[in-house]
TrEMBL record:
Location of the active site: 2 (schiff-base intermediate with dna), 3 (proton donor), 60 (proton donor), 264 (proton donor)
Keyword terms, alphabetized: DNA damage, DNA repair, DNA-binding, Glycosidase, Hydrolase, Lyase, Metal-binding, Multifunctional enzyme, Zinc, Zinc-finger
Protein name, entry field: Formamidopyrimidine-DNA glycosylase
Annotated EC: 3.2.2.23, 4.2.99.18
FPG-type domain span: 240-274
GO molecular function: oxidized purine nucleobase lesion DNA N-glycosylase activity
Residues that, per the record, bind DNA: 93, 112, 155
Domain of life: Bacteria
Biological role: Involved in base excision repair of DNA damaged by oxidation or by mutagenic agents. Acts as DNA glycosylase that recognizes and removes damaged bases. Has a preference for oxidized purines, such as 7,8-dihydro-8-oxoguanine (8-oxoG). Has AP (apurinic/apyrimidinic) lyase activity and introduces nicks in the DNA strand. Cleaves the DNA backbone by beta-delta elimination to generate a single-strand break at the site of the removed base with both 3'- and 5'-phosphates.
Obligatory cofactor(s): Zn(2+)
Family per record: Belongs to the FPG family.
Cofactor, free-text remark: Binds 1 zinc ion per subunit.
UniProt-listed InterPro entries: DNA_glyclase_Znf_dom_DNA_BS, FPG_cat, FPG_Glyclase, FPG_N, H2TH_FPG, Ribosomal_uS13-like_H2TH, Znf_DNA_glyclase/AP_lyase, Znf_FPG/IleRS
Length: 285
């Protein structure tokens, strides 16, 4: 499933490919992708004659900006965008086609059909679902250490599910949570409220570093992820935990273990990420 770095890569690619293009017509071939307005015909009609001005991201959502509207698109498991010539053969699982006046087309493909598109009048999109209740944006300047600590403090939940909860912090999924917790030396089942300020600071830095590294590498290609230009992301070669069960930890050499936390497969190093904090009490005894 694409996570923040992959969606960020798609965003950057789309900004290179569709800005300035004007929509002549929209073809909705699978109506369930269109969540708002209710009628796909209306969706198509509203977008007719609109020009794309830019693409932003909020969490794992893409925000495609036109003259009068914001198209909020979520790729879910397998959604992909590509820009094609109108004469290119239509590939299987192409569900929405934006025909441009210059003869090119933006096509949305989705084998699993879980992706969604919501169309809002420009400027109203943040007040409504699905963007309304989203949490901190980890690559934004508003993501400060204090804001991060305020979100987690006093929580009795395990740290991993909390980091996966989009109402606390957006865009980090299973892969990057495991990587960030390893980088910070924190066991995924630690109670969030039990983390010291020092540990929270390490985790905060680890999240930013992990996501930035992944964005720089173009996102992971686990589960056949491909960005908007057909390039395959390279970050999977840098993953230190995810998918490495049984391999030696690159930091200490201990065998990497896999367990299930809150229903999700979870990789960790039991030596680098002890469940009990190496506590201060011992030193005084
Ligand atoms: Zn280790």
């Amino acid at each position: 499933m694409p996570e923040l770095p992959e969606v960020e890569t798609v965003k950057r690619t789309l900004n290179q490919l569709i800005v300035g293009k004007t929509i002549e017509q929209v073809d909705v071939r699978l109506r369930r992708i269109i969540q708002r307005p209710e009628e796909p015909d209306e969706f198509a009609l509203l977008l007719q004659g609109q020009t794309f001005h830019g693409v932003d991201r909020r969490g794992k959502f893409l925000l495609l900006r036109t003259d009068d509207f914001t198209l909020v698109s979520h790729l879910r498991m397998e959604g992909r965008y590509g820009v094609y010539d109108k004469n290119d053969p239509m590939e299987l699982h192409t569900h929405v086609v934006f025909h441009f006046t210059d003869g090119s087309e933006l096509r949305y493909k989705d084998v699993r059909q879980f992706g969604t598109m919501h169309l809002f009048p420009k400027g109203t999109e943040l007040n409504e679902q699905p963007l309304k209740k989203l949490g901190l944006e980890p690559l934004d300047e508003t993501f400060t250490l204090d804001a991060f600590i305020r979100k987690l403090e006093g929580r009795t939940t395990k740290i991993k599910p909390l980091l996966l909860n989009q109402e606390y912090i957006v865009g980090i999924g299973n892969i990057y949570v495991d990587e960030s917790l390893f980088a910070a030396g924190i066991h995924p089942e630690r109670e969030a409220g039990s983390l010291s300020r020092k540990e929270l600071a390490a985790l905060y830095e680890a999240i930013i570093q992990t996501l930035n590294d992944a964005v720089a590498a173009g996102g992971s290609s686990i589960k056949s992820y491909v960005n908007g230009q057909g390039e395959i992301g390279m970050f999977q070669h840098q993953l230190q935990m995810y998918g490495r069960k049984g391999e030696p930890c690159q930091h200490c050499g201990h065998e990497i273990e896999k367990t299930v936390v809150a229903g999700r497969g979870t990789h960790f190093c039991p030596k680098c990420q002890p469940l009990k904090r190496k506590n201060a009490r011992k030193a005084g005894a």
